[in-house]
Amino acid sequence: MYLEVVEVRDNRDPTGNNRVKVRAYNKENNEQEIPDEGLRWAHPLMPVTDLTINGIGTRPPAPLIGTVLLVTYLPEDTLKQSPIYIGGLVRSEIDEMANGIQKRDPKTGGPGENSAQGDMPGRKGP
Question: 76 or 57: whose pLDDT is higher?
């Protein structure tokens, strides 16, 4: 199983399926070379008890911008173009992987103090 650490850069899925655009740490750190618009959409892994089919069922909210996620891929996705997010990670544990990733505001998605190099949204630093 291939796992990757990513940061949520956009959570406004035009399809309404709670996908999020993600930037992979140590792979897509150069924001000038790979702008947010060119990032991949990651799909949520849903528990079988909460699957939404034809509008029936529940759908949790998409993760906030700046959230750090763990993603994986289906074996057939050899080019790693359709990540599946399977859970979140505590930001302070992976800060060193975010070298070069610009800070983002979780409310606006624009430049801000909360990002891979800052604290979790809503949490004050040490």
Answer: 76
